[in-house]
Design a protein that fits this description.
Layout lengths: L8 H13 L4 E6 L6 E7 L8 H11 L10 E7 L3
Parallel strand pairs: 2-3
Antiparallel strand pairs: 1-2
Length: about 80
Amino acid sequence: MQPPKTHDPLAEAMIHILETNFPDAEIDLSSRDNDGVHYSLVLHTNAFEGKTLLAQQRWVCELLKEYVGLSVHALSMTTGTLK
């Protein structure tokens, strides 16, 4: 896991949720343009093994539903398994 590039409590909270659910994950979450409402996520974990891309991203959205669409206006994602 990489720490947020700037102090961003929202990003830190989302990273904590992802780390808790995907302990082996490589996570890179950043606020696009540092605006605090548009985020880009790259998440690779072996938990996604055998899951379609759509299933992976639905899983992430379900975990982050407290934020996505509320505090987070947009979340672009790249997901996959560890190599």
